[in-house]
């Protein structure tokens, strides 16, 4: 009897152990499966992170050719950096030549003088001047350029000097490391391209090159974007260009010359086609000056200079959909008086303009005569 009980007890224990073993096996399989899925989830997460990192790297690389200002500020993004592109607003017929001359006269009366400025310097000097002005004030950019030239009188000496030594001379302007790295890279590229005059890296050969070739030659340099190129061409080469910076963009939007959503590149592509060549230089300088000292026209109302008082552009800034030039009459003779632009008599004799709506914008049909 005891033997039978002992046998049954042993059988039950063996069965219990077998069941426990199966449970443990199932648990292990589950754990292994969970671990496998867990590893898969980890790998999937790592791949996603890697993918995002790669996307970010691509975005950084794509933005490498933009002006420093655009690279720092996302809302100032200049896109691909292409200067030659289709008209972004083909149905927007503003500004007309009359509007440009009127704004130029109003600002010249306020700020005084002939605002056309020529700078007697080399093309390389001008390029570096503009690059040093990125993301800083005019005062600081002027000081940093003078400091740089005092310490390193030649561009060859800038190229050959340790980067840290050059950075020390422009530290006040900010982003010294980035700016010096880009400037030295440009100098080396110019030397490698064989553009050396009396031992100096030189861009003087661009003076005899057509506009589009100048643009493409400069855009290939890291840190040189559309605004920098347009400034070098206008100030350094005397070409008919209309650079668009923060001040110009903000005032152009207020005047409804470009849509409120326009980027600086889009505004440049549009305004460079619309502003008459003979006033591009002076109008650009006047708009920049006005944007620094006019409270209504300064971006976010922040002045960089003493207030200029009342704004002469207020009558030209409409708040509805109809441009002021088209309200009541087709021209404003008082605005057309002066030495530049069409004579007042011609404006008075102009035929009535026909207005129609195209692409959400009111345009003058008879623009061909302008």
Question: Order of helices and strands, N to C?
Answer: HHHHHHHHEEHHHHHHEE
Order of neighbouring strands in the sheet with most strands: 1-2
- Rg calc: 33 Å
Q: Please outline the major beta sheet.
A: 2 strands, antiparallel
Average the pLDDT over all residues and give the rounded result: 73
Give the helix tally. 14
Strand content: under 5%
Helix/sheet category: mainly alpha
The rounded distance between the terminal residues' Cα atoms is 124 Å
- In total, the number of strands is 4
Which geometry do the CA atoms define? globular
Low-confidence stretches: 1-7, 26-81, 319-370
Helix content: 40-55%
Plain-language structure description:
It is a single chain. This protein has 370 residues and is mainly alpha-helical. The chain has a domain at 315-364. 53% of the residues lie in helices and 3% in strands. The strands form 2 sheets. A two-stranded antiparallel ribbon has the order 1-2. It comes from Vitrella brassicaformis (strain CCMP3155). Residues 1-83, 304-352 are annotated as: Disordered. Residues 342-352 have a biased composition (Low complexity).
